[in-house]
Amino acid sequence: MSNFWKNKKVTITGGKGFLGNHLVNQLIKLKPKNIYLPQHSKFDLRNYQDCLKAFKNSDIIIHLAANVGGIGYNREHPAELFDDNILIGINSVRAARKQSVSKFVAIGTICEYPKFAPLPFKEEDLWNGYPEETNAPYGLAKKMLIVQTNAYKQQYNFNSINLLPVNLYGPGDNFNPNSSHVIPALTRKFIEAKYGNKKSVEVWGSGKATREFIYVEDAARGIILATEFLKTTDPINIGSGTEISIKKLALSIKAIVGYHGKLIWNKKMPDGQPRRLLDTTKAKKLFGFSAEVDFETGLRKTIDWFLPIWKKENKISS
Fold this sequence. Notes:
Blueprint: E1 9-13, H1 18-28, E2 34-36, H2 48-54, E3 60-63, H3 71-76, H4 78-98, E4 103-107, H5 136-156, E5 160-165, E6 167-169, H6 182-195, E7 200-204, E8 210-215, H7 216-229, E9 235-238, E10 243-245, H8 246-257, E11 262-266, H9 281-287, H10 295-313
Parallel strand pairs: 1-2, 1-3, 3-4, 4-5, 5-9, 6-8, 7-11
Antiparallel strand pairs: 8-10
């Protein structure tokens, strides 16, 4: 067990969210002096004064907090996504410096990459184009964390790192149909179709777009390793290195759920970014991270976690 975390007071913004819950569970085992999770009801991180209060007496801040959703949510709330995330980021970094935090861990997003970045996405290509349009307000707001932390490093010697995790999935994910990402959204659709005896399920887009996913426990482990060992403010990818088409993903979830109806592809709806696949060479080299949970295993764990919850909500016996 590493001594790095001993006597450390760790604050995790967004610590009660999907990734936050898994991160906290892993951090507890490392026995830091304290883990503090600022509650959204008490601290509005869009406000500088609230950030100052939330970060008081912190040694390390792991900044997960964000306004985030799936492609439908992105299309409906672009202004809110930009405003909220730019304010949360700016004021969190300002307050962290003011409170003399020893290390600030900024969690960015794969949505920061250009729409047509060459595959696999290398960190050096991050600035070589505009993000995919539906992701741009969120992605660019989060991208400003890189600019800000680098500026703070130059002027104030502020110690920070920037991590770019790919799409997360796993137990505890957001399965709200109004804001969920593709895996929980499709999982809910197929479960509802199966138990509702529906003959077909509509899926957005053409199915040709590809995505990379990382199991949430792997992502949490990567963040912990980076917090301990990573020194540079340069953005670093955290991913699994495995690409899958949305069509194949839908068929995989359909098979695991046991739904036997048809898929209907609504090609009037956007595919989002055409392809996503990260180069994770730097994460392996700089802090020894590589994903361990293979996609099919993680997908089954995710569906097995959600199915009994859905049945209970809908009063369906096993």
